[in-house]
Fold this sequence. Notes:
The chain is built from 1 helix and 6 strands, in the order ββββββα. By secondary structure, it is mainly beta. It has a 3-stranded antiparallel sheet with strand order 4-1-6. Strands 3-2-5 form a 3-stranded antiparallel sheet, with no helix packed on it. It is globular, with a radius of gyration of 13 Å. The model has no long low-confidence stretch (mean pLDDT 89).
Amino acid sequence: AEGTPALGRFVLLSGGRGSVAHRGGEMTLHAQDLVWLPAGEAVALRVAPGSEGILVGVSDALLAAAIGSHA
């Protein structure tokens, strides 16, 4: 929606396997992998049947506030 910030996403694959396809190619994911998908990047996230994980959307402003001066 207009005025809504684009969200980057953290993906934690807690079990199983998958992949992320992006403009630079494709990256294989395995259990316990954590990946950052920046806002505005065209990506395709694929997971194998039975895989488990968490997808969390985060605005750039929230991420910057959480990191603060520690970056």
